[in-house]
Design brief:
Helix Hairpins, 2 domains, globular, 0% strand
């Protein structure tokens, strides 16, 4: 199956391309499609049919993972509209760079603390900030403000990475 005849991720799940999706509906469709496409169902078929089933199942898994992850979904939406960004591109927004440094300092301070309290507070703040960024992305994307949406995606990625690091500090502190 060539990539030209594959449905995009949203089409595969029968939903309109949008940033805000019903994750429960996506999961239900995923489970239904996975039951139909699972390679084990094709164990007694030809090697070619097994290979095609495995490819379709892999594509389904890729699509599901992309739609369920906020950053990946945002990135995919931008790609669909011809506005893909390089995951390794650097940001030149001075305010955002300053904000990153401040968060990094706070993360280091939280790691140096004996208790998890500071890291938990940072996680909560990151969650709130991420929610605001997601709302801003949804608005920018729906209004075709793709430069703004790209910038917001970079912020999303940073916050996601920061949250992972803060959660690791919390887990480390709580295991003591």
């Amino acid at each position: 199956m060539s990539s030209d005849d594959q449905q995009n991720y949203f089409e595969l799940f029968g939903i309109k391309p949008a940033f805000c999706i019903d994750k429960q509906s996506v999961e239900k469709v995923y489970l239904k499609l996975q039951a139909l496409l699972h390679p084990d169902r094709f164990a007694t078929t030809s090697e070619q049919q097994r290979r095609i089933a495995a490819q379709k199942s892999a594509y389904l898994n890729e699509a599901y993972d992309a739609l369920m992850d906020t950053c990946t979904r945002a990135d995919y939406l931008l790609k669909l509209r011809g506005h893909a960004i390089d995951a390794n591109a650097s940001m030149s927004d001075a305010d955002f760079l300053t904000e990153q440094m401040e968060y990094r300092e706070r993360l280091e301070d939280a790691a140096a603390e004996q208790s998890a309290e500071q890291a938990v507070a940072l996680c909560n703040e990151i969650d709130k900030q991420s929610t605001d960024i997601n709302k801003d992305f949804e608005h920018a994307y729906s209004e075709n403000m793709f430069d703004t949406a790209q910038s917001l995606l970079a912020r999303m990625r940073f916050m996601k990475k920061l949250k992972t690091e803060a959660e690791a500090i919390v887990a480390d502190k709580e295991s003591l």
